[in-house]
Write a structure and sequence with these properties.
With about 90 residues, the protein is mostly beta strands. Helix content is about 0%, strand content about 65%.
Length: about 90
Amino acid sequence: MSRVYGDAIDVWTVEGRPVRFVWRGRLYSVRQVLEHWVTTRDWWREQHPEAETATEREFWRVEAAPNGEIGVYELRFDAATGTWMLSRAWD
């Protein structure tokens, strides 16, 4: 089962790929990147041309572990703000 979050996280990258992140005070080590994709527009803004221009968002679905407890996490990088967010976790 997955849960949706919107928590800001700190992420360390190597050559653009996340290798570690801190979520709720715990350090997670990325063991494997499962998926990676980029969105370049917000579909709901198409009908509202007056809305601000959409930005690129990069998503990474990773397998990570804080202390041997392996889980799957979806990380999102917002290019406009330079911020990372944990958007979803599977248990």
